[in-house]
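Re: duplicated header lines in exported structure tokens

Our pipeline writes sequence and tokens for each protein into one text file. With two proteins the header for the second block appears twice in some exports. Here is an export where it did not happen, for reference. First protein block:
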Amino acid sequence: MRFVLPVIFCFFMAMNATAQTKKEASFVLVIHGGAGTILKKNMNAEKEEAYKQELTKALQAGYDVLKSGGAAMDAVQAAIMIMEDSPLFNAGKGSVYTGEETVEMDAAVMDGKTLNAGSVAGVKTIRNPITAARAVMEKSKHVMMVGKGAEQFAGQNGIVIVDTSYFHDDNRLRQLRKAKEEERLETEKNKDKGSVDDTLKTDAFYFLNPDKKFGTVGAVALDQNGNLAAGTSTGGMTNKKFGRVGDSPVIGAGTYANNKTCAVSCTGHGEYFIRNVVAHDVSAMMEYGKLTLEKAANKIIHEKLVKQGGSGGLIALDKKGNFSMPFNTEGMYRGYVKADGKIEVLIYK
């Protein structure tokens, strides 16, 4: 008997160590850098490599957080900040211009464990809007702040504020001027078909995008403690007017996380994502309809949105580490990394 007890003890210790190792190895990070008409024939090798390098850098930043036992929210922020600091993506440094040649950025975060969330919209001087969104969540009683008020709050809470010149980009300015010309031609073409008010209501007036892609960035993560988090950041749409805000900062539309189901970040024609509350709908289909993450995500992107004419995609990650990256456009900048550290980056269908 005296020999049996030590053996049993060693056995349980070994089992516990194995279980602990397995638990520590269970983490995932998924990111996106926007969806749209992204065709290989229109992409030169140098530009494609630049996108891949930035996506890889973002995944590595988030992975380092998760591997060290960090929180999903920290990993999401780390990954998104890399993309916000790159002129390649329509967020932060690379934000597109409004019709008034300014930038108006939106961002949101959500914690799947607590269901706490924070977002900012229409901000012009915050270097990394995702950090401001998190500050709203953690340092205020509110969920959303907009414009100058959001900037004032961010500054008072240690968020980096920059001069608007930081966001200047000649390429984005050329895109804006091309969009304005297309808008002028569209308005001229339709002037005899209805009133000016009718013309202003057309998609062409609001959403002409010379790149025909949506550069919103986002990330979803599952950490070693089984917690989910989601974040999204964007500069909106080229030539947007009247303080237009898309789905990214709207909790439940472009960003959502719930430990019971999944974490979601969307990219695309925001008005459709708002109307369909897309991010929350993925979660609802899983919770109430008992659909798998994959079925829920694909049903929304490939059926529901397509029927309405909505373009875009999303990334979603469930509490078991399963993830989905559906899109109904020609491409979506995306990637993922699991506990083994192998980074996968994809662009085209």
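Second protein block, exported in the same file:
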Amino acid sequence: MEVQISARHTTLPASLTTRATEVLSKLTKFDSSVSAADVVFVEENRSCKAEGIVHIDRSEPIVASGEAEDFNSALTNCTIA
């Protein structure tokens, strides 16, 4: 599975990109048709947001988002809307 991580208005530590990749790579254990995932981290007005988009073969993408005071917590808080 291909994982792409990007950041807007901030720089990400290597530990966060590693954690995000590890978390998303576990999705293939549940469904082998997961082909790719994108994670976007955004910092706005003292708030950190994480949005994950999971691409599944022959299906619509699944979008999850989370918000917290730091990016690790925002990644943990991601839920499907």
